[in-house]
Fold this protein.
Amino acid sequence: MCTVGVIGLGLIGGSMALDLKRRGFAACTLGVEQDPVAAEAAKTIGLVDEVVSYEDCIARADIIVVAVPVGTAVKMVPDILNHFEQGDKIVIDVCSTKSQICHATQYHPHRGQFVSTHPMAGTEYSGPWAAQPGLFDGRACIFANTEDSHPKAVKTIEELYAVLNMRPIYMNADQHDVHTAYVSHISHVTSFALALTVLDKEKDEKHIFDLASGGFSSTVRLAKSNADMWVPILSQNHDNVLHVMDTYIDKMLQFRDAIATYDETRIRELIAEANKIKKILR
Amino acid sequence: MCTVGVIGLGLIGGSMALDLKRRGFAACTLGVEQDPVAAEAAKTIGLVDEVVSYEDCIARADIIVVAVPVGTAVKMVPDILNHFEQGDKIVIDVCSTKSQICHATQYHPHRGQFVSTHPMAGTEYSGPWAAQPGLFDGRACIFANTEDSHPKAVKTIEELYAVLNMRPIYMNADQHDVHTAYVSHISHVTSFALALTVLDKEKDEKHIFDLASGGFSSTVRLAKSNADMWVPILSQNHDNVLHVMDTYIDKMLQFRDAIATYDETRIRELIAEANKIKKILR
C-alpha cells in the first residue's frame, strides 16, 4: 500500500485514482488539477482523497501518475525527475505518444525512476465528470522502453496495472507511435473529417439525428474527442500520422474511382478486402 | 391480424418477421429465401411459420415485405405488383435507397398498393443468423413518396411499423437518397477505407487486436458490412455518394495540410468544429 499522486484529474487520471484506491493498491490518493472548476468537481465526486499542489504531490506521493495532455507531459516528467533524489519514488506517464517523452527523459540522471506507459482505454468524453470505475478492465497497456527504467520500478508499475486488470504489452517507443498512428490516431482523424463533412453538407440537424441510426453514430463517435488532447498527439506523431493519412486518402480515391465508373466488380473487391477486418475484430 | 410474407430472410427481413409475429400483428408469417442454406437456417431458428415459394407467398400473403438487396428489389417490386389484382394486398420494400425503386414503379397501374419504406436500423451482420427481436425499437422509419400510395395502404403500413416501435418520417425519395448519402452511406465508405488502410499498413494482426481499444473498433465496425447489400446502394446512389465523398476528401486534405505544416491553431479549429456533432448526437 502506497500513496499515489495523480496529476490531471480527467478521464484517465480520475479513473485510475478511483480504481487504485477502491481496489486497495493505494492507501491514499492525491490529486493535482490546474483548472479550478475541474478541481472542485473532482473533490465533489471524490476522485481522490485530497486535492493538493504540484509540489506537495511530488513530495508526498510514492508513485506519481502524469495524466495531462502529451505536450505538457513532455516538460512535466523531466521536471518531476529533477525533484527526485536517488530513491524509490516513481513517475509514470499515460500519454498516447511515446517517442518524444522517452527522448526528452533519455539522459536524465533519474531516468530509471520513470516508467512510460499507455493504457489503451478511454471514451470520447473528458474531464473529471468522465472518470469511471472499471475503465481499464481487460484492456491492453503498453510499456515503452522498459530497459531504460529500473527493473524494480517496472515491477511496481506492472503491479499497478495488474490491479487495473490490464494486459501488459512491451514495445519500443518509436514502434508504439507507428502502430498507434495506424490503429488509433487515424480513426480519430477519419471521425473528425466525417463530422466536418456531415455538418457541412447536412444543414438540418433534425435529419442528422433521425438518420444517425444507420451506423453514423458509432463511426463519428470519436469526433467528440477533445482538442487539448488531440492537437499535441497529431502534432507529435506528425510523420507517422501523415504517412497513414496518405494511405487512407489513396484508399478513398480508389473507392471514388470505382463508384464514379460504376465498376461494381471493383467496389465488390474493395468491400471484400475491407471485410477481412472481421477475422481480427469480433 | 393478417398474413405477412417476407421475401429475403436476412437481418432486416428476419427481424421483422420475428417481431410482427411475436407482437401479434401477423397471424401467420411466410418466408421466401432463395439461398438453400439460409432457408434451412431460417426454418431451424423459426424466423417464420413457413418457408414457401415466391409465387405462394404472393398468392397467400396480405402484406409482402421485400427485404432483398436494392438491385434485386427494383425488379421484384414491379413484378409483384404485376401479380396483384386491384384489391387490398400491399407490397413494401425496406431498401436503403429510394429513388430508383420509386421511379421503377411510378406509372405501374397498381402503384397505390406499394409503400416504399426504409427502417433505419441494422447491425454490421447479415443473414438469418443476424436476425434479432427488438432490432427496430425506438428507431426512425422513413416513408418515401407516400402520396403515390393508397392512403389505406399507408395507414396499414404505419400500423405495422408502430408495432415495431418505429418513429415514422415522411420524405421525398430523392431527398431521402441525398440525406442517407450524407449521414449513412458515407460512414460505410469511410469505414471500408479505414479497414483497407489498417490492413494494408499493419501487417501484424496481433497489434491490430491489441491496439483496437483506442476507438478503432467502433470506427471500423461498419467495414464488416456485406458487399451484396452495399455494392448496389453505392452504385444506385452514385451521384449523391460521390458528392459527399468529394467533400469528405476535401476535409481530410484540410486536416493533412494543417498537420503537415504543424499548424496547431488550424488543427484545433478543425477539431473544435468537428466537436459540434456533440450537440446533435449524445
